[in-house]
Hints:
CATH class: Alpha Beta
Helix content: 25-40%
Radius of gyration: 15 Å
CATH superfamily: Rhodanese-like domain
Distance between the termini: 47 Å
Oligomer: single chain
Structural class: alpha/beta
CATH topology: Oxidized Rhodanese, domain 1
Number of domains: 1
Number of strands: 10
Strand order of the largest sheet: 1-2-7-6-3-5
CATH architecture: 3-Layer(aba) Sandwich
Shape: globular
Strand content: 15-25%
Amino acid sequence: xxxxxxxxxxxxxxxxxxxxxxxxxxxxxxxxxxxxxxxxxxxxxxxxxxxxxxxxxxxxxxxxxxxxxxxxxxxxxxxxxxxxxxxxxxxxxxxxxxxxxxxxxxxxxxxxxxxxxxxxxxxxxxxxxxxxxx
Length: 134
């Protein structure tokens, strides 16, 4: 349970990447909200992670377990914060946001699964495409 852990801002628990790694090692479920083209290149290397789009979570939130801690993640911690707020509004009490998402996780050198064949290239997410590896 997330009692006396993380930073609480407006009733939402926020964890640093290192805190999330420890929580995941202790049995927390990570829900990664990134699109397939985002997570195929770099994935969080934690024991219990599932991939789901925010709209699916909103429609099927009843499927998320309430008996284990749940951490919501994305690229930067913005969409994940919105989904944590949504879940708290639906009665979830053991849910937290990964601050900084994959960007901070990677910057902190935390465990990743990397598939270089899925590397993206582009100046912003709207034009990202698979990078040709020659």
